[in-house]
Amino acid sequence: MDYTLLLNIAMILFSTKLLGLIFQRFNMPQVVGALLAGLVLGPAMLNVLQEDEFISMISELGVIVLMFSAGLETDIKEFKKTGLASLVIAVLGVLVPLLGGFCLTYFMNPVAENDDSMAMLKSMFVGVILTATSVSITVETLKEMGKLNSKAGNAILGAAIIDDVLGIVALTIISSFAVEDVDMVMVMLKIVGFFAFAIVVGFLCFKLFSFYMNHYKKDYRRFVMWAFTFCLIMAWISEILFSVADITGAYIAGLIMSSTNRKEYLAVRFNTLSYMLLSPIFFASIGLKVVLPKMSAGIIIFSVLLTVIAILTKMAGCGVGAKLCRFSNRECLQIGAGMISRGEVALIVADKGAQMGLMDSEIFAPVVIVVIVTTIIAPVILKVVFSERKKAVSQ
Amino acid sequence: MDYTLLLNIAMILFSTKLLGLIFQRFNMPQVVGALLAGLVLGPAMLNVLQEDEFISMISELGVIVLMFSAGLETDIKEFKKTGLASLVIAVLGVLVPLLGGFCLTYFMNPVAENDDSMAMLKSMFVGVILTATSVSITVETLKEMGKLNSKAGNAILGAAIIDDVLGIVALTIISSFAVEDVDMVMVMLKIVGFFAFAIVVGFLCFKLFSFYMNHYKKDYRRFVMWAFTFCLIMAWISEILFSVADITGAYIAGLIMSSTNRKEYLAVRFNTLSYMLLSPIFFASIGLKVVLPKMSAGIIIFSVLLTVIAILTKMAGCGVGAKLCRFSNRECLQIGAGMISRGEVALIVADKGAQMGLMDSEIFAPVVIVVIVTTIIAPVILKVVFSERKKAVSQ
User: Which chain A residues touch B395 with a CB distance below 8 Å?
Assistant: First the structure.
């Protein structure tokens, strides 16, 4: 038993909350503070804390519980209403950044690739990286502001799920150019299978839970435990059986539980579990991952441009998508802002690209910078575009 | 990232709660079910789950939070009142099992040791193993029954802390016979230092927290986070600086926080964190540790006798101690029962003995059996000696 663990957790809990409160004082979301806490403690600055197995596992559990809670707090009727809009937003939110990333990389050619078809493929891959959306930061920010269950909030959540699926499709298509044994049909079948599974199992489990819970007059801890088990199993099945992100499964599990009559009871407990231990470690771990390599001047310029492109194309794509679906200008801005954050998803995609030879090592630093900047800036922009009157939530 | 983790956690949460509810139906504590869940899933039976790094770390965190909660729910005035009694109970609760374990082993001589002085030393070591007390199971059982803050409950908690310290002293003394470089003076100084530290820091932190919390009219999440940080740091300092068990530090931290005016607010949150994730994993992990080796007939008989001696001597020692301090007969029984469980503490001591050559490998199986039986039987006996009228607590 390594007791340093206790000290590490103490450091994370203390610093994320302290920086969170400081940022709140300056009218910014607390989650920005939590992200910076990881950045400060980690290899990027003080280097007193490194991400280890334990932290990364707790983080995974943390993001699963966060997305389950988001599902719990979603109004499923609202969610269904925004379904088509979410699809349009997601599709444009994938296409515009894909195009933007491709054009920038192809015309700047930062790694001086001579082979033109390879240059096109590699540039396209940078585009694919930019399509990723990491919704967890947005969820936390909106929760903090009490805006998660707004019309724009629902559209963002729906679009993020579809974005995840489109991301898999885009990655599969580009992989099929580089690697021989990618089976497009299989991937498509899995995705269709996942949605069929989610609908059928979702309906059955909803009926089962409703029947079970209606049996009792009082609230019991067992409801929480069965719901948690359900959440974990859905996350696991999504990832292992259907190759869809585990957090998508967790979100759907939350969505299913949100229709039961114990929604409030569950939400309070999962929120407590989340803010006391899992979320602080998850948000700090994002900062802990950051290691900045040395970069040439050309790569620095490329990084800056790529970051700008990443933010603008996502906002433009999603915003225009929302506008087409008759959202108000303000809501278009909110939705665009909610999809900016790339988070760990972009890093995972980049990693797969490197394995397939579609990512040069020089491109890693720009991608890391895009992830850091979009992740930290997203909650700040969200705060600006969502804030009207102040709504105090006890933190 | 190994996604099997999600499935493993789901299995633990589901099985501990399910078996817990089944045991509750038969009027037994839920924690017995949780312990058996680990036994069933683990290497002892189905072998679908093994204890890994993650589970053992979460377990450590779980027992720390459990003891912190116990501290939070302790009535510090009651606790001070039972101080002297706890000392008497702990001393007799160490001496009687020490003698019992020594006599049984020396006269049965199960490993046929020829060297008489070595036989005495080894027998004494078995006695030292029997002095250990693992209070976590008792805490959980009493919590379930709403009896943690009874007079007997306070006496048990106090005695368990002193028992921990006496255990260190006993281990140090016997080690000094076997190993050259054991510094008795240093160990004593550390123990005195620990109590001085606990009193001084305890008082200062109590003042600091009280001042800080009185500043706010409402309850805030930050109270929970600062309290958690404090708990973890106290646990770490106890273990690393003073070689006292981390859970003792956590308990003292809880005791300090129990005097602030946010005791209830904190208790609810820590209980939620505990029952949703940490405790189930902790209790299951105890069962997961169980691996029964092959045993000869002589060792089996020795195991049975050692288990009986372990239960009777602890109950007798603590019971007589309580009687000397004018507890009622019923309370004596309750206190004796509350100290039976040996839990992981005995295994840790046994492990140290093996490193020093004071434990033959044949003795490991009997020790494991003592731990399993005392741990599973303790909550059952507690339920019997504590139950009068039923008190329903929502689980």
Answer: 220-222
Q: How many residue contacts between A and B have a Cβ separation below 8 Å?
A: 133
Please work out, in degrees rounded to the nearest 5, the angle formed at the alpha carbon of residue A127 by the alpha carbons of A126 and A131.
Answer: 115
* Residue that the structure tokens 């001696």 belong to: B309
Tokens of A37: 């806490």
CA dihedral B230, B236, B240, B243 (to 10 degrees): 90
Contacts of B208 (CB under 8 A, 6+ apart): none
A109 Cα to chain B: minimum distance (Å): 33
Q: For residue A394, how many other CB atoms are within 10 A of its CB? A: 9
Dig out the tokens for B69 from the structure: 């909660």
The answer to whether B136 touches B164, Cβ cutoff 8 Å, is no
Structural domains of chain B ordered from first start: 4-381 (1.20.1530.20)
CB atoms inside a 10 Å sphere around CB B51: 19
CA A164 to chain centre: 9
For A250, how many CA atoms within 13 A lie in the half-sphere containing its CB?
25
In sequence order, the 6+-apart residues with CB closer than 8 A to the CB of A295 are A303, A365
Contact B60 A276 (CB under 8 A): no
Which residues of chain A lie closer than 8 angstroms to B273, CB-CB?
A: 272-273, 276-277
Chain A residues contacting B via beta carbons under 8 Å: 1, 3, 5-7, 9-10, 13-14, 17, 21, 53-54, 56-57, 60-61, 64, 218-222, 224-226, 228-229, 232-233, 235-236, 239-240, 246, 269-270, 272-273, 275-277, 280, 394-395
Measure CB to CB from residue B240 to each of A3, A54, A235 and give the nearest one: A3
Q: d(Cα B224, Cα B265) in Å, to the nearest integer?
A: 8
CB count in 10 Å sphere of residue A353: 24
Q: How far apart are CA B81 and CA B84, in angstroms?
A: 8
**Best mutation target, B2, B6, B53, B228, to test chain A (most A CBs within 10 A):** B6
* DSSP codes joined into one string, B213-235: HHT-SS--HHHHHHHHHHHHHHH
ipTM for the predicted complex: 0.86
Per-residue pLDDT of chain B (395 residues; tens, 9 = 90+): 688 999 999 999 999 999 999 988 988 888 888 889 998 999 989 999 998 999 999 999 998 999 899 889 887 887 788 889 999 999 999 999 999 999 999 999 888 888 888 888 899 999 999 998 888 889 989 988 888 888 899 999 999 888 888 887 888 788 777 776 667 788 888 888 998 999 999 999 999 999 999 989 888 999 999 999 999 999 999 989 988 888 889 989 999 999 999 999 999 999 999 999 999 999 898 888 877 777 788 889 999 999 999 999 999 999 999 999 999 999 999 999 999 998 777 877 887 788 788 888 888 888 888 988 998 899 999 999 988 644 445 55
Question: How far is residue B158's CA from residue B201's CA, in Å, rounded to a whole number?
Answer: 19
Q: DSSP for A113-134?
A: ---HHHHHHHHHHHHHHHH---
Query: Do B273 and A276 make contact, defined as CB atoms within 8 angstroms?
Result: yes
Residue A44, SS3 per DSSP: coil
For residue B64, the chain A residues in CB contact (below 8 A) are: 6
Chain B residue with Cα closest to A277? B273
Identify the burial level of B104 via C-beta atoms within 10 angstroms of its C-beta, where 0-12 means exposed, 13-18 middle and 19 or more buried: buried
Residue of B nearest to A394 (CA): B220
For chain B, the distance separating the N- and C-terminal CA atoms, rounded to the nearest angstrom, is 33
Q: Tell me how far apart the alpha carbons of residues A13 and A11 are, in angstroms, rounded to a whole number.
A: 6
Angstrom CA distances, A110 to A186, B18, B76, B210, stand at 35, 58, 67, 59
CB burial readout A73-104, b (16+ within 10 A) else e: bbbeeebeebeebbbbbbbbbbbbbbbbbbeb
